[in-house]
Amino acid sequence: MRKKIELLAPAGNKEIFKAAVDAGADAVYCGIDLYNARMNASNLTMDSLAGCVAYAHERSTLVHLTLNTLVDDNEIDEACNVACEAYNNGVDAILVQDMGLASLIHKKYPMIPLHASTQMNVFDADRLSSLKGKGFTRVVLPRELTIKEISDRSKLASRLNIETEVFIHGAVCVCTSGLCLFSSMNKSGTRSGNRGLCAQPCRQRYVLKDGGKQIHEGHILSPKDRCALSFIPELIDAGVSSVKIEGRMRDADYVKTAVSVYRRIIDACYDGSLTDKMIEEGQKELLVNFNRGGSFTSQALSGNKDSNLLSGEYVGKYGLKIGRLTLRDCKEGTITIRPSGNSYEPSKGDYLSLRDRNGEVKSFPVGKVSVFKGNYVVKGLHPSAIKELPDDLNVFLMNHNFEDKSVKPRKTHIDVTFDSSVSGVIKASARVTDGPYEDVFAEDELSYVDEGRGSVSCDRIEEQFRKTGSTAFTVDEFYAAADEGVNCSIKDINELRRGLLETLSAELLSEASHTAVEEFSIDDFISDDSSAGGSVSVLRYYPSLTSYRNDPEDADILAFSVYDYVKEDGKAGIQKIIDRTGKKLMLVLPDFCHDKENTVFRKIKDVEFMPTAGSNIYNSTSLKNALKKDGKAFISYEVPSSDALNMLNNAGGKGTVFLQCGGFVPWMQTDFCPVGRNAQGCKACRGGGCYNLSSEEEGNEGTKVITHPLDCSAAIFGHAKYVFDDGDANEAASMGYDVIKCYTEV
């Protein structure tokens, strides 16, 4: 029987961590103040992590630590030690992005389970298969995949003994995870998303032009939040092991509400009580909790890209529209709201936002609410503020207490057996009935003196054992070895119960504990091999065939996008260029694509593919692994040349390395087309092209958008932050590498 799907919740600090557990999360993921993709969250410390882990494990909840950033050669040793210490503090798995870090953790501490972050961009079967034997027990799939693609990945992963995890709720990146350099290249270039410091430039305003003609203006890269509530049954059927809520930057109320809603729907899927109305009510709760633009996106889960992906001009918390302002009574200090549809009635303490078409006019906390002739009469605004309100305002509910008093905090379920067969002694045992620590067992006993107070009935004994209070346990079944009462006191029963639960807690934490034992030294994996000097060649890359204008005399290699090559006229045009110039041809694959396009690209034979910087090679261990596997590698655009040369020196000097020496680099690769906006049947880009993107602030002049009509995807190119010069290339060649100097023309 397949294991029940795991509900995985975020935690940015200790308060949120406990809120997530209490709300019903099966697992919680969190970071400490080092090497995690949400460095601006409050985060835990290693000391506070241990206490949180114990709190979670007692309640049958697992804990995953995020080490999901790129790390350099000066950091990788410390990051390995963090993984070890966290594991020894009880963390159940480590989430990683950096393949170099993952390989060192696995070689040094092979007992630590690794989870491949969505930042690792494991989008196809080949990348998934490559994780086998490297310590990975789970992969977080890209948000851009369809249900069909998720199902196919889950089937393959199952054969590899790897679980799949899918994001179901929260903020999404318009760029494919792990492939966004916008924040690190834009403006000051000091806040890298791959280093946990994304400045969210996608939430800013931009202008998109075709030549001098404006196409779009506004928040044209800002997506709505994701909600996959209605897809939970399909994700279960697809074989997904874990569903994940985004939100380590959100507060405790947000996490509590999101976990509670998804907990309710998941449980209903398994007990057969799920209805469309439950999903509808859950979506409304989630909309009030947080949304951008008034609704959610499911991205491509349905099989089609969402043409309503963007948040619009209201990129912050939007709320849920509950009606329109119809009356203002300054004397009574009230406003009257005519409800729209099946809306919520606001309650005392809720916040309301009054808006016209230009945005918010006024917001305020609700003081008192009454209902008159189906309308909401609300107090909370000062009479002078009411007097200034214009007519024709929409009313939005910004928060609401949806807490269900009948829902109890998460606890570990146990069965208890009571035995009084030995005179003067009462015994009890407890066994965990489900969850990750099922069958953990404990027992305790207590000697008592019959003081002639009469016997305590079995019913009363059971009643006392069910009083688990604020402990981590709740009793499912209670068994008594005899039907007769016991001549002990209630105090004795309570003392036995407390002792039993304390013993069970200790047994459970012992079962959950583990220790990482070092098996190798990190120094064993850094080679100092040297070889004879290598060659230096020049490559010019044209992401769009439209940018090819003149035959370059200095190039040894010409590279083109597969998106152009798979078009009949594009392939013919590229072949003419190669025949005319006599240059070597290389093709560039996208760092993400769907299965349909991947099948097309795989049919290309007898042409060498150029590696891309999308592999995020940020340290010498990643570099060495890539060179060993493929014989060639492209160093990350985010690595300064001095650091890159140190990486090259540490990696051993064997293979072909690609270094960006000039031109543009892809700041963003996205499954969304900013030109056509995913509209069905769109022909806006007329066979592909290059568009100009600019912001209302300085910092990204000359940024280009290249569209791909084949799959309605796009790439945004901007100036490189770091480039290598001839001296750098020659120094790398002197270490033994064959060096390809890359220039990108847009």
Detailed description of the structure:
This protein is α/β, with parallel strands linked by helices. Helices cover 27% and strands 25% of the residues. It has 19 helices and 32 strands. Helix 3 packs across helix 4 and helix 4 packs across helix 17. The longest helix has 23 residues. It is globular and about 110 Å long.
Short characterization:
The chain is of the alpha/beta class and about 750 residues long. About 25% of the residues lie in helices and about 25% in strands.
Provide the descriptors you would attach to this structure in a database record.
globular; 32 strands; about 750 residues; 8-stranded parallel beta barrel; alpha/beta; 12-stranded mixed sheet
Rounded Rg: 30 Å
User: What composes the largest sheet?
Assistant: 12 strands, mixed
Q: Note the gap between the termini.
A: 54 Å
User: Helix share of residues?
Assistant: 25-40%
Arithmetic mean of pLDDT:
93
Instruction: Tell me what portion of residues adopts beta-strand conformation.
Output: 25-35%
Low-confidence stretches: 524-528
Our count of helices gives 19
